Amino acid sequence: MQILDGKQTAEQIKAEIADEVNRIKARGGKVPHLAAILVGNDGASETYVANKVLDCKQVGFDSTLIRLPADITEQALLDHIQQLNENSDIDGFIVQVPLPKHIDETRVTLAISPAKDVDGFSPASVGRMCLALPTFISATPNGVMELLKRYQIGTAGKHCVVVGRSNIVGTPMSILMSRNSNPGNATVTLVHSRTPNMADICRTADILIVAIGKPDFVTGDMVKEGAVVIDVGITRVADASKASGFRLTGDVHFESVKTKCAFITPVPGGVGPMTRASLLQNTLKAQALREQL
Fold first, then answer.
1. Which of 6, 113, 193, 251 could make a disulfide contact with 274, Cβ separation 3.0–4.6 Å?
2. What is the pLDDT of residues 70-126, one digit of tens each?
3. What is the pTM of this model?
4. Alpha-carbon torsion, ordered 185, 171, 56, 24, to 10 deg
């Protein structure tokens, strides 16, 4: 069993991005600028956005964090989004989710200019991805693909089972793995909460990608010998033995699965760092596209 080290791989990607930023500066170009809107004070979101700001500093990006109160109106949030759409200094931006329940996340997503949609959530970005056209691919699926590529894991002709059908991870993951590309060219099965005999299907997977949001959901008896296991999930589980009072757990029961598989991502330190690195890659791409205009 080999660990797919997302933390180490993300550091390699960030070093490559930092080198490119130095080249941009040397030729007098514009430094990429990523902005983030954070609504309210959700603890996990606070941590995630703070890490994104640190990532920007590490690679030499400019960054802007816009903090808004949890009781902000939907229209006021949309006004902030429009301001970022029109701000020529901002190359890309994200609106951190989850949002307060009174705000329609779909309406927010639709309001973001596709040219600055570095999260890759807009219908334009998703549509171009489906057609294999150049676009911003949502950060988590892109991070998984990058991890597979950099570890030189063969995917062509393999059976890939994706557990979970969210618009952010599961569905785009299934499309990317089936595309005529490398990584890709896999035969893909997408399973979800209504799938009968899910465990039987998982046992047929050469590559198992789990993004269902249920801690320790996939156990060793659901995994084929020699499979590649990608655990996208991350959940805080109460643990009195930890100073924080919780531990971070993936969707895969690591201890029972690690003896069965050839490769596995840890939680934390697997897909999470790759997601953040992919956001930086998308921002660099956005800056390059805007520089060409």
1. 6
2. 999 999 999 999 999 999 999 999 999 999 999 999 999 999 999 999 999 999 999
3. 0.94
4. 40
- In the numeric block, which tokens belong to residue 214? 């249920």
Superfamily (CATH) of domain 139-272: NAD(P)-binding Rossmann-like Domain (3.40.50.720)
Catalytic site positions: 52, 96, 119
Q: Are 174 and 230 spatial neighbours (Cβ–Cβ below 8 Å)?
A: no
Q: Which of the following CATH numbers is that of domain 30-113: 3.40.50.10860, 3.30.1960.10, 1.10.8.190, 3.30.230.10?
A: 3.40.50.10860
C-alpha 101/C-alpha 205 separation (Å) is 37
Sign of CA dihedral 189, 190, 195, 198: positive
Q: What is the strand order of the sheet 207-210 is part of?
A: 2-3, 263-264, 228-231, 207-210, 159-163, 187-191
170-179 per-residue burial string, b: 16 or more CB within 10 A, e: under 16: bbbbbbbbbb
Q: Is the pLDDT of residue 293 over 90?
A: no
Q: What CA–CA distance (Å, rounded) separates 105 from 99?
A: 7
Tokens at 28, concatenated: 């007098």
What are the tokens at 57? 């500093």
Nearest to 157 by CA among 182, 132, 137: 182
